[in-house]
Amino acid sequence: MIDPSHPILELLKEDSRYPFDAYVFVFESLNFAQNELRMGEEVLAEETEVSEDSVPERHVSGQQLCEAIRQFAVRQYGYMAKDVLANWGIHGTGDFGEIVFNLIRINQMRKTPEDRREDFDNVYDFETAFRQEFKITPSEEEP
């Protein structure tokens, strides 16, 4: 069960455009971008003191995150990815920006001074990205 005082649950009281699952999906997509796709430049967080143990964070741009979200959505939901996102109120890449900047506002994500909400606008068309370019590929696993 989720702690009722979790910052995202507080956020949902103010902005109910996207459900909790949409926020979780964006977090999972960021993890996918950084760890599986190896996206992002290594940068030290501004508010972190530099020490020998400091591990640089990997900063992913808005455009990179949109691409990672596309790949992760297709991997998770296949041809239904566009429908799952639409069910969450996500109809374009600008919605990813709204989610990310809501998370930044409640200190659940960070940004660099160069990052802008507009970086997420019109990165790709959902119909093209999730339907027209969708390809079924056989599994690498042998029966």
Structure notes:
With 143 residues, the chain is mainly α. The chain has one domain. The chain contains 6 helices and 2 strands. It has helices at 7-14, 20-36, 62-77, 81-87, 93-105, 126-132, and strands at 41-43, 57-59. The chain has a two-stranded antiparallel sheet. It is globular. The N and C termini lie far apart (37 Å).
Summarize the entry for a quick read.
It is built from 6 helices and 2 strands, in the order ααββαααα.
What is the multimeric organization of the chains shown?
single chain
| SS-based class | mainly alpha
Q: Separation of termini?
A: 37 Å
Low-confidence stretches: 44-52
- Rounded to the nearest angstrom, the radius of gyration is 16 Å
**Largest sheet geometry:** 2 strands, antiparallel
Provide the number of structural domains.
1
User: What portion of residues belong to β-strands?
Assistant: under 5%
Order of strands, main sheet, comes to 1-2
Compute the average pLDDT.
87
Order of helices and strands: HHEEHHHH
Give the helix tally: 6
- Counting DSSP E segments of at least 2 residues, the number of strands comes to 2
